[in-house]
Amino acid sequence: MKKMHLAIICLFTGCTIFAQNIDVQPIPQQVSKQDGQINLPETYQLLGETEANPYAVQELKDLLGGKHPANTGLRIYIGEKGDKSIRKFTRQIPNQKEGYYLSINNKEIILAGNDERGTYYALQTLKQLLKDNQLPVIEIQDYPAIRYRGVVEGFYGTPWSHNARLRQLQFYGENKMNTYIYGPKDDPYHSSPNWRLPYPEKEAKQLQELVKVAQENEVDFVWAIHPGQDIKWNKEDRELLLAKFEKMYHLGVRSFAVFFDDISGEGTNPVKQAELLNYIDEHFVKVKPDVTPLIMCPTEYNKSWSDPAKGYLTTLGDKLNPSIQIMWTGDRVISDITQDGIQWINERIKRPAYIWWNFPVSDYVRDHLLMGPVYGNDTQIANQMSGFVTNPMEHAEASKIAIYSVASYAWNPTKYNSEKTWKDAIMNILPDAATELEFFAAHNSDLGPNGHKYRREESVNLQPTAQSFTESYIKNKTYTEKDFSILQETFSQMVESSDILVAHADKNPIIVEIMPWLYQFKLLGETGNEVLAMVKAYDKNDQSLFMRKYKHVKALQQQMFQIDQTYNQNPYQPGIKTAGRVIKPLIDQTFATVTQCYNQKYSTLLNAETDYMPHKLISDISQIKNLPLQVKINRIQISPALEVIRWPGNGSLTIELDQVYPGENIEIDFGKPEIATWGSLEISANGKDWSKVNFTQKNNRLTASLQQKPIKAVRFTNMQHQEQEIYLRRFIITIDK
């Protein structure tokens, strides 16, 4: 009846219900907009400030700036349901947690929350609507579709800096995200072996500041502990964990999580996990009225790793207290969330899953930036999730593009527009160079080949031209001038956008983060234009010009190699990769084709190779077989995996080299100090006949000296029938080239 009444009013006043043309993100649930604007007057009456959310009140005063409070002027009502100032607007306030009612007309502004956080979100919407001292005449009823929305800093690699976290928390508040889970894998006081110890004074003060800023931005600061790798299921460790939580409580933390992900051994026992978590819930969480529900991340946190026969997930579902939230990444470690997938897990854990979405996290492809649109998650399953948090990149500012989009999706998934939200995010983050950042991000969104086989679209608008040009030129040595012109323009724009963005380095920290990729992107654009110049020179039979351009391309390739070998030299996926899905393959294939044509025509032997991987990884182990190989000078290594590898009995991995080399040594790290008596290391000079190689082990590190023996392949096999749980942190062959 109420909606019908609103529709009749709108019919006669020219307003729009569910208006999509207002500049607000996340998109509100219901909007009624009339024609016209109001100008903020010089004076206003603020009603309800003594009862309302103090953070919202302070931001409102900051927003009004030079305006003056008085007994006359525009009336501004602010408060929560039940407050005297907004009692008459109670029926308009959505009866949803964090919901709000916002009304703007030439007589009054109403910011009415269902609770304090709802009032704060009404203020955030008002801030977005205010343009040049003007506000639209509008009525909004809004609330989030998913209860908990935010970010889990749960990646491996360099943790965010303190200042980056402070900027993140403000960003979350502005975009109506209410959750920040602090769980960086490389914080020694979060995980084994130091989870039992208190934070040193400096780190403790920083955490206190983060908690304070989170509160000011209406964000729950969730401190997570990761004790599973070495926890003892006894009273002593249980009390140490509770004592650590008490210490964090005294630092101001009011939200807590326990992670049991990426571990092996006794810590994976679901019965013991449930007993511990229920004890924490009953003796810590529920006895403190200001502490939010406990969150846990299970060991089997995705479907592909779960073993229904062992009943891990159903045990948690049956034994965990109903209020404890259970996290879930989807059908795989890296996957989008689907209707079938969410139903599968909810049936087992007997509660709505708390989604830990592993995007744009790049800790398994650290040489890439993931700056493209957020898409792929079902938009009709909000009521089947208790929470949705995104795991970001170690690049905090670059991650904001995806975080902004996740904020929009989690608030109102049915109205979520991936492409528009992505563009809005970029405009929000770098308005002075949004065009250039959007262009760069469009070509830096895919992950490249990786062990999880998770890929993203890249260079979407260029794809048809790239395909048309490649097919015509590679097969028939022909092309259309239209395709050629579009490619020239694209490569020139790569150079221009890189230069413009680099010039903004002192204005926005995102540019500092992505600087090496901007260098590489520019060089790739220059390379593309020079390769096209080679094509034209060949067509004109201009040998002199062709050779000039060929030499320049080789010089540019050398510069790109140096950048790849200099920047971002992490031990997992070192280097700088850019535009790898469409643009770089196009340039490489065109270069190789035109150089080969030149060699055939003029009987030359110019090198037509670009970077490529001459060696192969072969394995029957599902978690290993898709891992990429890396080559650095004379070292060939498997890209390390971050998760526990379940190596089946008799399973093996083989690295097959492109030719026979004198071998120097082999280094392996399975992440465990126990002697790897279960495995056999072998080498072959022809890929057929194998000989065993003895290795020595010190702590986690296995080493074998090859003493210049000829090798064509290296193999490691689980010689036992039972499965082994290991970490693949290092597998390196060093050869004599």
From TrEMBL:
It catalyses: 3-O-(N-acetyl-beta-D-glucosaminyl)-L-seryl-[protein] + H2O = N-acetyl-D-glucosamine + L-seryl-[protein]; 3-O-(N-acetyl-beta-D-glucosaminyl)-L-threonyl-[protein] + H2O = L-threonyl-[protein] + N-acetyl-D-glucosamine. One of its GO terms (biological process) is carbohydrate metabolic process. This is protein O-GlcNAcase. InterPro entries: BT_4395-like_hel, GH, Glyco_hydro_b, Glycosyl_Hydrolase_84, Hex-like_dom2, HEX_bac_N, O-GlcNAcase_BT_4395-like, O-GlcNAcase_cat. Pfam families: CBM32 (PF18344), Glyco_hydro_20b (PF02838), Glyco_hydro_84_hel (PF21809), NAGidase (PF07555). One of its GO terms (molecular function) is beta-N-acetylglucosaminidase activity. It is an enzyme of class 3 (hydrolase). Keywords: Glycosidase, Hydrolase. Residues 147-414 form the GH84 domain. It comes from the Bacteria. Belongs to the glycosyl hydrolase 84 family. The active site is at D262. Its EC number is 3.2.1.169. NCBIfam families: GlcNAcase (NF041654).
